[in-house]
Amino acid sequence: MDRRHFIGTGAALSLSALLPRGASAAFTPTPADWRRFEITTRVAIPADGKPVQAWIPVPSVNEAEWMKSEAPSFTGNADSAELKTDPESGAQFVHAIWNGGQPSAELEVAAVVSTRDRATDLDKPGQGATLSEAERAHYTAPTRLIPTDGIVKATSDMITAEADGDLAKARAIYEWVVESTERNPETRGCGIGDVASMLEMGDLTGKCADLNALYVGLARAAGLPARDVYGLRVAPSAFGYKSLGAGSSDVTKSQHCRAEVFLDGYGWVAVDPADVRKVMLEEPPKDLALDDPKVRAVRAALFGAWEGNWAGFNFGHDVVLPGSSRDSVGFLMYPQAEIDGVEQDELDAPSFAYEISAQEIGA
Length: 363
Fold this sequence. Notes:
about 375 residues, alpha+beta, C8orf32 fold, Immunoglobulin-like, 5-stranded antiparallel β-sheet, 9 helices, about 30% strand, globular, signal, plasmid, Transglutaminase-like, Transglutaminase-like domain-containing protein
């Protein structure tokens, strides 16, 4: 059987059935106390007297159950700097402009967020928040890199053909992504999330922005509102998974994209198949199988829950950066910059140059 077309009997299993015996506490995010973090991005772009622009994403997700963002502060030698909001997605960023003459374009942006674990009891549908027709249309619409027709729609239909109801469809897509994809350590950054190309080429490998975008695209094609949540790991995992947390206060390369699906009766539900694949590849002794207890524990939890050692920046796709020479960026999770109108490589932090740190602070 071709595993890339395998839906898997796991789609019909309950979360408890996926947990290994004696490992119920191995990975069990549970809403509890809030934690507060300060995230600081420091930019020192080698301008050599040329004009520079920079767009620095800041946390702008505010969800009552799991994250609160505070207004950022920023200082530097820019000729102008302003907090701006993308009108389509609500993504926020500091837009700084240096008119020219400085050897180095410098900026420091500090943002404070409060986070905590989240979990939805999928055995108990309640009176979850409803979506307006406009919101439902927005979160089922295609984006430049996430179409909802063609091969994406055909694949989604195949996966959900025997699923009865939205919860079953959402779970079937999650299990299919877990079963059918692989994390590729050679992928730069978090990937680009070109969903149709992945399916057309039969190359279902990549990192979080690829694998979780695949989930979002398949869910939207099934008529389920879904969204990527672009953000940053800010602390180690409390459950002993080194791959699922930040290893130090230096989080320059700790970006991570998660996903959510909206289910009537439950509201927005956490989904992260990409982190299941990350655990399989990176947790000792590495190259773990799907039936390994560590993998089974996170696989069970990451449909419905996630750990609060991560801060969400935004839900944005096709984000327009004011003043940029580009029409838009597929998503805004990394600092962006242009020197004399020339786009800089946001994945090459030392040359860009920027660094990001995170520290836990008092309530």
